[in-house]
Amino acid sequence: MNYETRVNLSDASDHGVMADGDAPSGEASRKRRMIIAVVVAVAAIIIAALMLVGGESETPFAPEQDGTTPAVTVISPGSGTYAGMINVTGTLAARRELPVGVVGEGGRVVSVPVEAGQWVRAGQVLAVIDRSVQTQQTASSAAQIEVAQADANLAQANLDRATQLVARGFISQADIDRLTATRDAAVARVRVAQAQFGERQARNAQLNIVAPAAGLLLERNVEPGQVVGAGSGVLFSIAQGGQMELLAQIGETELSMIPVGATGTVVPVGTDQSFTCQVWQKSPVIDEMTRQGTARCAMPYNAALRPGGFASIEINSGAVVAPRLPESAILSDDKGSYVYIVDADDKVERRNVELGMISDEGIVVASGLDGSERIVARAGGFLSPGESIRPVLASSAD
Fold first, then answer.
1. Are 109 and 226 in contact (CB under 8 A)?
2. Dihedral sign, CA of 123, 128, 129, 132?
3. Region Disordered: which residues (predicted)?
């Protein structure tokens, strides 16, 4: 007995029963989805790589149009007036620092009545040295004067008596001459004793260490009880008049641009205070190693200016009229800085230049150009003197 069974495909699918012919179509669908996913992933990677690259890169030369001569971007900068401001750092110092040490024979320090940071006047005692021995020596010198004076008085009295007797014939002229010489020698010994006494007094006066001039006491390197002498070195340091200065180390090119009398603004490190200074001296010597010189900028006293500290300074070097080029146009080698200019025959020519002020807007050319030249703006390292090019002005190239 035959029974015919009918199966509803939709019901079978709902109950996990797959009809004949469905398996192949499901496998193809999954493959298609996998291929699409791979393609999307590859496209995402390519897009990310392009974003990381940051766009198209700049090529050193413009596209060649005639197939033989490269097109190169050039500029004609002209000349402009630029306010010269030089920013450097330097060290604060006393404009006139007076080192004070032992002048006399020295000895044991009895007292030091001053402290660093105080103002002192000329001749003020900075340290007192024991003089007990020297006082006795001075008294001895004073006594020697009295002894010599007594001998001189006796010699003079003998001469006076002999002079009265010579007329009577009791004393010869030779005796008078001898007594006169004795008197003169005694008087000379008096002067010697007086000079020795004065020398001793002068030595005693030098036992006290005094300030040679008025100013601010910067250093005190001695304490009571210390034994000092000629080899003790600097015991005190004084800033004469309290005047300060900044020692700015500046490159030789920029130093030549700063006139004596130029003003600047000084900001000590660690503070937000600014002070006005004036360049009063430029170093006549350039350091062979650093190729720098020193500009000395004077300032009045202020408690925020501490010798030995660092400070930044902005110096007004005056206005200059000169071309200014982008940094990409400046090249350098062992012969110095140079640029490539394009002559009337469109050939590259080397031109040596001296650089001036450097700023975010470019580099001022101190000498070597007048601004009317056609100058290779960039990629000069790919060119060589005498090479023919097709110049393209930067305005038209952009």
1. yes
2. positive
3. 1-26
Inter-axis angle of helices 173-207 and 132-166, to 10 degrees?
A: 160
What are the residues facing 97 on neighbouring strands? 239
Q: How far apart are CA 204 and CA 15, in angstroms?
A: 126
Q: Which residues contact 274 (CB under 8 A, 6 or more apart)?
A: 265, 266, 267
**83 pLDDT above the threshold of 70:** no
Length of the chain: 398
pLDDT tens across 228-239, in order?
988 888 999 999
Q: Rounded to an integer, what distance in angstroms lies between the CA atom of residue 42 and that of residue 329?
A: 41
Dump pLDDT digits (tens) for 222-267: 999 999 988 888 999 999 999 999 999 988 878 887 888 888 899 9
- Assign a CATH topology to domain 71-79+323-397: 2.40.420
- Per DSSP bridges, beta strands 292-299 and 107-111 are unpaired
CA 28 to each of CA 97, 171, 202, 358: distance values in angstroms, whole numbers, following the listed order:
95, 163, 119, 68
